Amino acid sequence: MGIEPGLGVERREARFAWGLAAPALVTILLVALFPLAWTVWESLHLHDLRMPWLGRPFVGVDNYVEAVRDERFRGALAHTLFFTVVTVALELGLGCVLALAMNRPFRGRALMRAAVLVPWAIPTVVSALLWRFIFEGRSGIANALLVEAGVVRAAPVWFIHTDLAWVPVILADVWKTTPFVALLLLAGLQNIDPALYEAARIDGASAWRQFRHVTLPLLKPAILVALVFRTLDAFRVFDLIYVMTGGGPGTSTEPIALYTFHSLLQNLRFGYGSALSVIGFAVTFALALGYVRFLGPGLTETRA
Amino acid sequence: MTRGSRWAAVAIGLLVLGSAFPFYWAIVSSFTPEARLFEAPSLLPRTLVLDHYRALFTERNFWVPIRNSLVVAGTTTAFCVVVGGLCAYALARLRFRGKGPLLGLILAVSVFPQISLVSPLYLVLRSVGLINTYPGLILPYLTFAMPLTVWLLVGFFRQLPAELEEAAIVDGASRLRTLREVIVPVALPGLATTAILTFVYSWNEFLFALSFTLGPERQTVPVAIALFRGMYQVPWGQILAAAIVATAPVALLVLAFQRRIVQGLTAGAVKG
Amino acid sequence: MASVRLAGVEKVYPNGHVAARGLDMEIADGEFMVLVGPSGCGKSTALRMIAGLETPTAGRVFIGGRDVTRLPPQDRDIAMVFQSYALYPHMTVRENLAFGLRMRGVARPVIAERVKAVAQALGLEGVLDRKPSQLSGGQRQRVALGRAMVRDPQVFLFDEPLSNLDAKLRVETRAELARLHRRLRATIVYVTHDQEEALTLGGRVAVMRDGLVEQVGPPMEVYRRPASIFVAGFVGSPAMNFLPGEVRDGSWSGPAGLILPLPAGGSGGGRAARATLGVRPHDVAIVAPGAGDGDARVDVIEPRGSELLVHLRLGPEGSGEEVRVIAPPDAPVRVESAVGLRWDRERLHWFDPESGRRLD
User: Fold this and answer.
1) For chain C, what is the domain count?
2) Percent of chain B scored above 70 by pLDDT?
């Protein structure tokens, strides 16, 4: 004599759980998944809001073909990759140094935490404006300081040069985000048992050796988490560049997100813009999947 | 001082200086008359005026974007903490099948580049007449606020001692009452931190606010500042004043709750 | 108060882990039943199935004669004391005690009265308005107990409630629990991994292993007549000695030439030609070499205050199996010395080496 498994306490609990989770699930389906599906569908059509008389014919992969041939899009892709690689590398490196420095007990911890959190907490728009102001024109404070320090003779106009324009942009991103990376790494550092360092010291390991053989391996999970977050964020950069350079001069600092935005809301080419979105999304998703596979199932594990 | 801690002190000193400098410079400049802004700038201010701040509120009516941001960020936060919180509780503490995929789905949504949601959301909002309205911003905001809230709260709920709910159930409380009378009060610090973080992210959001609003009546603070236009030149004085006004509340919130915020962020992220 | 009955209860988890197989147990009204066993034996799972926190995958649970298998914990009229106490940290002691009654809609004056009575009984009047974080470990344990008592349930369930206390407190609280049981005459189901606790507290003890009950009975019976090698080795400290051997011509012969007669009426022949001997360290005496049933050599001596724990190796050269013996503190033993061992004929146990079961 037995009862059907799944009845009783566990079944009731599962029902209650789904009841709690349902509103969030429905919300996500409505505002995220459904629109995403729509975007994919839209990308297969010609839909130009400036020319409504053309209707909305199905054109298959024409938009995608155009995108691949579009030089401006390829440029945007290159800019995005460049930006991502440079900022992530700088932020991880500096963040690591900072985290190591912050890992010691000292007074003024609160001050340091504030210094770390406030840049992260302000709108990207504001940080973009602050840094634009610093590098603006010939007599922004940056130029004033550089000239006075004798680093340059004539003050450059940063935002006019296709290469120099990247400097304030990257600086602004590093300023805003390195603290956050440092925080993530610091949390990882604090999880390392100090007894390991003592054992290494007794074994005669120098500071560098300790770093290489104790710190680095045990910090790997935190580094990977920081890497994933930062790469995904850097790839989707929009606010910073829109406000700082508008993608300019010309389109020399334009990332994918900005070009897609132009296609959609300035050129009103919804079909084409959607195709660009999908490509951007696919690349981001592929990156994320790649990281997840690399990191193992740890990211989406839940405790039963 | 050992060599190591001297080097660390230098690094920290540079950090604090580097973080603070742009703010310092912005604050100083926002009190500097417009004419002086690009004329031989010096690190120490010579004259201080309130012109820019005054103009902000009299000429540009900066109260409006502030109000808009408060409404949108506040509503988004309230909705997400409640709805997302219930979902997070289920994910963290209840047993049911499909838990893994559900969490994975919610987190996957946070991977979506915002830009890919702009076109469909724009078309939908336009067709139901929600462009340039509060709901027209709150709904899109849920796409990033909800996953964030769920992620953070799952981390917090997991830290609660496991036997609390069982004790309440054995004592005779229904699951709902357990949630209300036992879990929520104990999780209050985590809920507060999540609310703060969600609010900050919503307040700072730019792309959706730029895409889905048409004019100053519904623009949020980041958009309003970015679109400041002067008659003849970029009004840097007012822009900086606006930036300070825009960030002061957020900065103060963060400073007041820094320990909790750091705990929340790192608990969710590193132990992922 | 009520009786508890488990009939054919099984619990298999979705991942295949079997926590309980075919549990059958009857706990009488007012009885103090202890479930004891090593970790993973299923005792906590059994307790949780009585509580209703887990549902059996087969079998039924009865409380007070009522089939409660499908009822949630709220409807079973049971109270539970958790290993970590699980006190509500944001409520005062008073609110903690009152919670259960409040959930059941008991009138406020009645709640106040009962809370006061329980607080008095447990010596908690002074801390009624404190929060759990402001209490000592012992006080917290009493609040957990009080929370259960105030509900006046049909059955009390205890899940290793003493394991978080230090040794001294544990012994004191044990006595208190025994007193409590006498006064309340409550039906108690108590889970522990500590066999000493089980023997001192239980009216009856159920020794469990791998999801099955190996033996149920009063503590003395489980101690004196263990039903299997596992029970014999688990109950009693220091653990019982086991020696492999054979039954031949009406006696048992073991290692190092040890020969012991079987008790009268013992099955000399039959299938069980091999038999393992079990004897407790207390039931072997150290005598002069040659004056006992066999010789041995002393290996290690552990003084334990009121007695000595002597490790010996069988055989005049000390080349055989190891045997542990409890000896009085003034016993004439020295390391490496040769001694004789006399085995108490009344206290020998034999087990089938394959099935582990007791042979009679």
Assistant:
1) 2
2) 92
- The domains of chain B, with CATH numbers, are 3-49 (no CATH), 62-270 (1.10.3720.10)
Q: Which residues does chain A have with pLDDT short of 50? A: 1-5, 297-304
Which ranges of chain C have pLDDT less than 70? Answer: 1, 264-272
Judge if C122 and C179 occupy the same domain.
yes
Decide: helix, strand or coil at residue C97: helix
Cβ–Cβ gap B94/A16 under 8 Å:
yes
Label residue B267 by pLDDT band (50, 70, 90). Answer: low
ipTM metric: 0.84
With respect to residue A224, please indicate whether it lies within any of the assigned structural domains: yes
Q: How large a percentage of chain B has pLDDT more than 90?
A: 32
Contacts of B182 in chain C (CB under 8 A): 88
Which helix or strand (DSSP H or E) is residue C186 part of? none
What range does the domain containing A102 cover? Answer: 45-297
Are C239 and C279 in contact by the 8 Å Cβ rule? The answer is no
Distance to chain A for C264, nearest Cα, Å: 44
Checking if the pLDDT of B68 tops 90, the result is: yes
Alpha carbon of B166 to those of A257, C88, C133, C196: distances in Å?
49, 11, 20, 28
* Angle at A151 (CA atoms; ends A145, A156), nearest 5 degrees: 75
pLDDT bucket at B29, cuts 50 / 70 / 90: confident
How far is the C-alpha of B193 from the C-alpha of A109, rounded, in Å? 20
Q: Which residues contact B132 (CB under 8 A, 6 or more apart)?
A: B212, B213, B214, B215, B217, B218
Residue A203 sits in a domain of what CATH number?
1.10.3720.10
Q: Which domain holds residue C317?
A: 241-359
pTM: 0.83
The pLDDT value recorded for residue A5 is 44
pLDDT of residue A55: 81
**Mean pLDDT of all residues in B204-224:** 92
> Do C221 and C270 fall within a single domain?
no
How many CB atoms sit inside 10 A of residue C59's CB? 21
Q: Comparing B134 with B62, which gets the higher pLDDT?
A: B134
Structure tokens at C154: 């049909």
Spatial separation of the C-alpha atoms in residues C345 and B193, rounded to whole Å: 71
Residues C165 and C267 in one domain: no
Q: Which of B161, B167, B172 sits opposite C104 (nearest CB)?
A: B172
Maximum C-alpha span of chain C: 77
Q: Tell me: pLDDT of B268 over 80.
A: no
CA distance C227 to chain A (A): 28
CA gap A176, A125 in Å, rounded:
11
Mutate to test the interface with C, among B170, B174, B182, B191 (most CBs of C within 10 A): B170
> Which of C131, C133, C146, C138 minimizes the C-alpha distance to C101?
C146
Whether B87 and A21 lie within 8 Å, measured CB to CB: yes
Please count the structural domains in chain A.
1
Determine the pLDDT at residue C208.
93
